[in-house]
Design goal:
Length: about 110
């Protein structure tokens, strides 16, 4: 089992920035972020492997940066140039090699206003 604890959500104006953090209880192959807006399905935001390989949703490329500190089992999401469309609950995700074991955080609210 892996426990994930997220922090860093909040309210920000359009064009602003936020940084999300997610601490895992142990090291794991892949960590990342998904988000779910009201009335919509949960969607990928970005992922990063323990070797630093990243994957981003097209909607956030160039604005969001994912990084991780393997020694601290922590993943970060730096979100710049935020837009109201980024408003959602952001969930930390972690999975082992092959994806057979997958874990979710409790979610953190990000709200972007005009």
């Amino acid at each position: 089992q892996v426990q994930l604890v997220e922090s860093g959500g909040g309210l920000v104006q359009a064009g602003g920035s936020l940084r999300l953090s997610c601490l895992a209880s142990r090291s794991i192959f892949s960590m990342g972020w998904y988000r779910q807006a009201p009335g919509k399905q949960r969607e990928l935001v970005a992922t990063i492997t323990s070797r630093g390989r990243t994957n981003y949703a097209d909607s956030v490329k160039g604005r969001f940066t994912i990084s991780r500190d393997n020694a601290k089992s922590t993943v970060y999401l730096q979100m710049n140039s935020l837009e109201p469309e980024d408003t959602a609950v952001y969930y930390c995700n972690a999975r082992g090699v092959g994806g057979f074991d997958m874990y979710w955080g409790q979610g953190t609210q990000v709200t972007v206003s005009w």
